[in-house]
Structures are given as structure tokens and as C-alpha cells.
Amino acid sequence: MTPLSFTESTDKPAADKATAVTSAAGEPPKPRFAAIRMILAIAGKDLRTEIRTKETINAALAFAVVILLLFSYAFDPTSDQVREIAGGLLWLVFLFAGALVLNRSFSRELTNDCLDALIASPASGAQLWAGKALANYVLLLAIEAVCLPVFGIFYNLTWLGQLPLLVLVIALATWAMTIIGTTFSAMTVNLRLRELMLPTLLYPMLIPPVMGAVKLTTTIMAGDPIGDDTIWFRLLIGYDIIFTLLSAALVEILLVG
Amino acid sequence: MRQKAIYILSAIAAVLLTWNLYKVFMVEPDELNQGAMYRIIYIHVPFAMTCGTGFFVSVVASIAYLWKRDLRYDAIAASVTEVSWVFATGVLVTGSIWGRIAWGIWWAWDPRLTSMLVCWLLLVSYLMLRQAVDEPGQRARLSAVLAIFTFTDWVIVWKSIEWWRTQHPGPVLSIRSGGGMAPGMEAPIYWNALAMACLAAALVLLRWRQEGVKREIDALRRYAHAL
Amino acid sequence: MTALQVQDVWKYFGDFPALRGVSFDVEEGSCLALLGRNGAGKTTLLKILAGLSRPGKGAVKVMGEDTRAEVTRRRIGVLGHGIGIYDELSAEENLRLFARIYSIPDSERVVSQWLERTGLQNVREGLVREFSRGMRQRLAVARAFMHQPTLMLLDEPFTALDDRGIAVLQDFLNDARRAGRTIIMSTHQLREALELATDVALINRGKLAYRGARTQEMLDDPTLLYRIYG
Known about the structure:
The structure holds three protein chains of three kinds. Chain A is mostly helical.
């Protein structure tokens, strides 16, 4: 095993060693799009780890199926009444299962003090947050993509009719969940009662987008035209924009003491 | 100095409240549709005004803390939020009573009351976060950011619940059947609001002093550990 | 050229001052051993230098820039108590991740080189979860210093290392010094650190109790400073 060396190579001739030292001591060049690459690197790392261990995804999916089952005891799944509450049910499932994913977001960085390594790196707080939000978004959408057919099967609801609109609603509302969840995960990462605090802080904050998502989902699944409900689309978009900006601006304060 | 302020504010509040209560109960006639119970509005609405103002003040104090990093701003933010939460509880209780009298149900999903419930939940989340953090600087930092988030959210909540209720009309706590209140009736609300504000300010000052003492004790404890 | 300027730094935890008016400079190319008892404030100070925490009062300048400036974060390398590598990734993936975050040019070659130098090229695809303590430490060093930082911050790097690990780390740090890097190292392992150090600073109860060059006296009697300054 060659001893650790800080210069380019241990067996280079002395002259080369000198040039290696001086050139390496100069400023490292920063490539273009460094920010995007950092964000994607962090997102990719989270996704790779999750796919490898599957710990959070499995727990979230199992939890979702259990909730769907329990709901079937709360009311008659075959009745027409289900159509009216379909939106609400679906989003409750997404919220509860989603919290499991969001909780892990920053807490997975605590082992081996990886969070410190990331904060000290050139990735700014906002970039770190963006990378994690991206990974969470993908995970949440994956879970929802599995839940939706199961939901349709259990409660005999068809949602293929207005699929593009439904996908749009899910995309917007899931982003709302993602950004608040990721930010609050950063907020609670160093707290003892992390698992308890995150849902407590998260759910009241998500009331507006969930309201909009529920209303729109119920309307879409019932096959009704959107009409007046476009106001909820505007709410979702506005909420997403406002809180994405706010999160990106404030997350650095949460992470750096 | 602060002690004196607390006494003076409490005295003003007491005087205003007593005078108003007299006016409300003795002088004002019973309202057309709702009978004697409408008088609860004179407590319910000022409670709500004080709570809303308090929430706003706590956000301003939170931003001030993040800018200056002076823990006194954090103490103000915490005190104001706690007092606002107490007033929010008052709004919910008086609203519930009002709803019971007006429609026979304990909770009416009235849009404004529902927004107040969400406000109450958001304020509780702030208080719970503060309980969960021991280190004062970290506590101040995290709760300041949370205050900004929750207040922004609440403004959005307020609007969205209004929209929801226009689509699902339901009972509304109001005595504005015609669209407005009779001129003479509005005044006690504002006087009461002033009285509540004084009371709230007194409570905030009390709480603020408590926060300062707690920080001192905390520091002394750390000194002791270090020795 | 001054690599690091610590100017009247105070750090409060609530009203309790963990650091009290700490001021010192570190010249480029020197190696500073940061000494002090447990709870004296060494880790608190290092966290501030690494940009993980902000001072309550005062300022820290790394090559004239703020600790949180992006250019500073590219120039420093940090090896803390926790080693900062991911258990669920392979050695290779860990280094590649940080190579991308630090925008290291020609990253594949650099990653391969460091895997070779740390003797991990045969387990490059193995998950860190399965590595021994020594292997993890070596990978951590690669992770922390792969991007050729000019200022290296180490918090108790010799702790819990076996003899081989200590020798490897000493070699590495000597090499870095010869390459003109600036090193700041907090430590309880007095002998190893003092051998490497050119300068010494002692923190006692949040205050800077001693700051000066490392002398032969200190090498001969490592606990000397603790006896004089606490």
C-alpha cells in the first residue's frame, strides 16, 4: 500500500513534484453549472441510498396499504358516498405515508456526521435543500404512483378518465408537501423528539395545499368539470412558489448555527 | 420600570374592560335576531383582533432576531406568541359558545372560526418547537424561522378557507344579517380591542421577564458545570 | 500570507460564553496544534473555523474571506469527530459524490488515485458498512482532502486509531505540510501532534491561554503547557 500522499504522485521526480505543488496550490477552477451538478449529486446520493436499502419506501408503502384497509372499516367502500370523500381519503394516505419519507430526509445525514461534511462543502444550504427536496419528490411520487392503483382497486374508483389533470394536481400538491417537509426536516434534524416534531409541525402548515388537492381530486375523480375549482390550482401554484422561495432563503439559517 | 408598565397597562385594561362590560350589558339593547347572546361578539372579536395582531408582532420580532441575533427579540417573539395563543383559545371557546347558542351545535365550521383553529394549531406548533430545543441560540433561530413560515401559511389559510366556504356554504358567525352593524354597536368592539391589547401587552411583559430570568438561570447552570 | 485570522471571537450558548475573545493568526504553511481540556472550547472553535457555526461576536477570516463564502468552502477540508462518509455507498461512490460537490476536474482519475493511495482500490466497490475502522478512517481522509484544500481542519484525528493508523495519518500530514498546506489540529494525543506541529495554542475555559511556536521543551515534556496554563 503506497503511503498517503498529498501531491500528485509519490514517485514523480523532484522537479515535477515542485510544479505539482505550485499548480495545486492555485485556485481550483469552478466549472459551469456547478450548482446544478451539486444539486443532482446530492439528489442522486439520496435516491441511490434509498433504492439500495428500501427501508423508507417499504415502510411507507406498507403503512399506506394499512391505512387504506382501515378506512374500509370506517365506512362502506362500495357505496356511492365514497366518491364524495375519495379525494380526502387519498390525500390522507399520501400525507401519512409521506411523513415517513420526509422525516428521513435530513436525519439520514446524522450518521458519521455526514451533515457537517455537506454543510462545510461548497454546496450552499439552498443547494443542499434543493438536492434533498428533489430526491424526496421522486420518492413521494413513486409511493403515490403505487398507492393510486391500489386505491382505485380497493374502492372501485376509476381515475383514468382525466389522468393528465389528476397528475397535475398530484404533482403540484406533492411538491408542496416536499418543500415544507424537507425544510422542516432540516429544522428538526438535531432535536431529540424529531420523529414526533416533524408531523406536528408539518400538518398544520400543509392545510391550504391539501384542501386544494382534496377538492380538485374529488372533482376530477367524479368526472365533473373543473369550473370554479381553478382557483385551487392557483392556490397550489402560489403556495409552491412562495414556500420554495422562502425555504431556499431560510434553510441556511436552519443548518448553520 | 417594566414593573410599573405592567401595573399601568393592567390598570388601563381593567378600567376599559369594566366600563365596556357595563356598557355592553346595561346600555345596549338586545339585538334583533340573536337575543342577549350576541354580546359575546364584544369579547370574541377583540380576542381575535388581539390574537392576529400578536401573531404579526411575533413575526416582526422573529425577523428582528434573525437580523440582529439579540436574544431579547427572541424573548419578545416567544412571549407574544404565547399570549396570542391564549387569546386564540379564547376565540375558539367564545366562538364555540356562540355557535351553540345560535345553531345548537358546539362547533360550526364557520370559516373564520376554522381559520382561527388553524391559527391555534400553528401557534401551538411554535410553542412545541420551543419546548423541544434546549439550547437558547438554536431555539431562537429555529422558532424565528418557524414563525415566518407559520404566519405566511396562516395568511394563505385565511384566504383558502374563505374560498372553501363560498363553495360549501355553511353557518357563519355574524350579526351582520343586513350587511353591516348599526353604528352605535361597533364602538364597544374597538374599545374592548384596546383593552385587550393593553391586557395582552401586560401579559407579554410578564412573560418576557420570565424568559429573561430563565436565560439567566440557564447561563448560571452552565457556569456551574464548567467549574 | 496569513491563512487564518481569528479576531476576538465569542460564542454563546444562551448566556454562557463557550469562547471568550479568542484572537490569533495562523500563517500559511504552518501546522497548529490546538490543545485544551475537554469542554475548553476546542470543538466549538473548530466548528466556527469550518463554517459550521457562526461566532456570536468577532470574525474569522480564511485567506481574507468569510468562513461561509463559497470560495472559502472550496479551500478548506474538514475531518471532524464523525468521519463524514456514507455507510450505504461504496468507497468509490463516496469519493465520486464529494468529487462532484467539490467540482474536482478529471474526477475519475483523482478518485482512482486516492483509492490507490489509501489502499482501498481492491474494495472500491464494497459498501462502507462492511469496512473495518481503519479502512473507514482512510477513506474519510481521502474524502476530506481529495480536493487539495489549502487549509485543513482536523478535530482529534488520532483518537481511537491503532498504531498503523496513527503512522499513516502522520505520514499524510507531514506530506501535506511539505506541500505548503496549512493545518489546524485539535488533539489530546500530545506527542503525535506536537511532533507535527510548528505552532501551539492552548484554550482554557473558552480563553486563549497560550499561543506560540512549538519548542523542544514541549516535545520533551508534552504536558508542560497544561501544567502552566491549565
